[in-house]
Amino acid sequence: MSAFGDAQGAQSVELTLTEAASLLSGADMASTKALTEHGIPSVRMTDGSNGLAMNLPDFSGKVPATCFPTSSALAATWDPALVSRVAAAIAREAAAAGAQVLLSPGMNLKRSPLGGRNFEYYSEDPLLTAELAVGFVKGVQGRASVPVSSTTSPTTRRPTGCA
Prior knowledge:
Pfam families: Glyco_hydro_3 (PF00933). The protein is an alpha/beta fold. It is built from four helices and five strands; from the N terminus they run ββαβααβαβ.
């Protein structure tokens, strides 16, 4: 058995090992599995480092969204306030599309120009990356979507993009 709850005093729920393990895989490519018998809803997620990257329910395309400058382009401004405004706009679009979790910002440090996903990350400089990531999170806070920082390897292949 394992407990499920949050730090804000929500009621704990006892799950069997099978139920708890089922939460580690998704209901689909963008949503967690719901355990309705325990009052645990499905959570919808989306990538969003440079705009909402959410598939349509039938996977026939992407939800229409604004394509913002990439994280590396925003980093070139050295402006956390600008990153915060962009993040707030992305959060509004994510909430309007029904996402509860925004899988962003990407905070991996660029270690090689050969990394194919470098555009998703801010910089090779840890201080600049930290300052801009804080700006992004502050821009999303107070919105319906919750940011989840991404620290995947820049060579990891994961779906991204914008419509």
